[in-house]
Amino acid sequence: MTHSVETVSAAAAGSLQIADRTVHRLGYGAMRITGKGIWGPPENPEAALATLRRAVELGVNFIDTADSYGPGVSEEFIAKALHPYPADLVIATKGGWERLGPGRWVHNASPKHLQAAVEGSLQRLRLDQIEIYYLHIPDAAVSFDASIETLAHLREQGKIRHIALSNVTVEHIERARKMVPIVAVQNRYSFADREFDYLLNHCERNGIVFLPWAPLGQNRQANDLLLQIAAKLGATPLQVALAWLLRRSPLNLLIPGTSSVAHVEENIAAGALKLPDEDFQRLSDFHPAPAVFRD
Questions:
Q1: What secondary structure does DSSP assign to the chain, as a single string?
Q2: Model confidence at 5: pLDDT above 80
Q3: Tens digits of residue pLDDT in 69-109
Q4: What is the CA radius of gyration of the chain?
Q5: What mean pLDDT is predicted for residues 152-181?
Q6: Tens of pLDDT along 203-216?
Q7: Which has fewest Cβ within 10 Å: 78, 85, 121, 128?
Q8: Are the CB atoms for 54 and 263 separated by under 8 Å?
Q9: Cβ proximity of 130 and 120 under 8 Å
Q10: Mind listing the domains of the chain with CATH numbers?
């Protein structure tokens, strides 16, 4: 699929409503604008800044990040690249992990930690209010209800506007919804990894926006199928994977991440790729073995 970069636009993917904002269904995930192991600054800071700016130039108006990416680095780079922010830009961030080093993640969704995490994100992003804030992952050592109650309290204080969840089950969603509205859920999902099919279906039935992470999956056979379809359509495998996700559910909001301007252009161009019915069905019918991931 060849497009002049002048014609590429996130608007081609269509839009959806997330809480009280309308955003294009192709957003940007900012985990990769960090160093190796999602730790420290990126190897090429100028390329990371240019990638963020290019995403917004191409119509991206939803950026997903987390305080644990760096830690803090991703949020700082978003502010450095884009502040003062465009009026239509929605920035979502997360809290619930602590970082001890490259590739090392430790749960902490305690009330004290979440309160400090929100304050830190506000400062790094240069915001007075975070529009969408996720509990990044439930913490087995902390009451889930206590984590959600903390976010609800921060919402009442005006520090966050809407609450979302990540890496959860249907039970988590429904427990949280008894305490506060949940506007979005982010879990691992792709054409090659359907473990959370049931959760996407639950979100769709309840009007909750779903953000799949690891959109390519990690399965050699599945990637062979992507390669076949991509060659047929003149697209890249990632573009085919993203196009399948866009068609899979009208409530899917995609957040592919990269630290490369060329790759962000490639990702956003996927919004204009229309999968033929036959190819959509082939991808839909694929059932790989479960894979193990970490966000």
A1: ----TTT--GGGG-EEEETTEEEESB-EE-TTSS-TTTBSS-S-HHHHHHHHHHHHHTT--EEE--TTTBTTHHHHHHHHHHPSPPTT-EEEEEE-EEEEETTEEEE---HHHHHHHHHHHHHHHT-SSEEEEEE-S--TTS-HHHHHHHHHHHHHTTSEEEEEEES--HHHHHHHHTTS-EEEEEEE-BTTB-TTHHHHHHHHHTT-EEEEESTT-S-HHHHHHHHHHHHHHT--HHHHHHHHHHHH-TTB-B--B-S-HHHHHHHHHGGGPPPPHHHHHHHHH--PPP-----
A2: no
A3: 999 999 999 999 999 999 999 999 999 999 999 999 999 99
A4: 18
A5: 98
A6: 999 999 999 998 87
A7: 128
A8: no
A9: no
A10: 10-216+249-258 (3.20.20.100)
Distance CA 268, CA 132 (A): 22
Retrieve residue 17's tokens: 């409503």
Tokens matching residue 83: 């502040």
Has residue 295 got a pLDDT over 90? no
69 is catalytic: yes
What is the percentage of the chain residues whose pLDDT exceeds 70?
Answer: 93
Candidates 28, 69, 133, 134; catalytic one: 69
Residue with tokens 């036959």: 278
CA 281 – CA 293 distance, rounded (Å): 25
Q: What number is the average pLDDT over the span 214-222?
A: 65
For tokens 């639950």, the residue is 202
Chain center to CA of 295: 10
**31-32-36 Cα angle (round to 5):** 110
